[in-house]
Amino acid sequence: SGGGFSNVAPTPSWQATQVQAYLNSGALLPPVTEFNSSGRAYPDITALAHHFMIVENGEVLAVDGTSASAPLTAGIFALIN
């Protein structure tokens, strides 16, 4: 775990509005000299996202990426709530 802002990848266009809203939200942030506010934002939680096994139409498949981890994380939060 260790969310924050990338020092390598810039903020992608699809993330720009949300990142700017967060930065302007009044959230308690470190000094601007201590993080790259123009970098890609990434979450502070993770889930398996490589070779994640699913069943689709009765067939077992391996999937990768946020298409695997995001629904898993949503399901966990749904069970918690």
Shape annotation: elongated
Main β-sheet, in a few words?
A: 2 strands, antiparallel
Distance between the termini: 22 Å
* Spatial strand order of the main sheet: 1-2
**Could you tell me the strand content as a percent range?**
25-35%
Global Rg: 16 Å
- Please provide the count of β strands: 4
The average pLDDT value, as a whole number, equals 89
Q: Give the % helix.
A: 25-40%
Count of DSSP-assigned helices: 2
Structural class category: alpha+beta
Which residues form runs of ≥5 with pLDDT under 50? none
- The ordered H/E elements are EHEEEH
Plain-language structure description:
It is a single chain. This protein has 81 residues and is of the alpha+beta class. It is 32% helix and 26% strand. The protein has two helices and four strands, in the order E-H-E-E-E-H. The strands form two sheets. A two-stranded antiparallel sheet has the order 1-2. The protein is elongated and about 50 Å long.
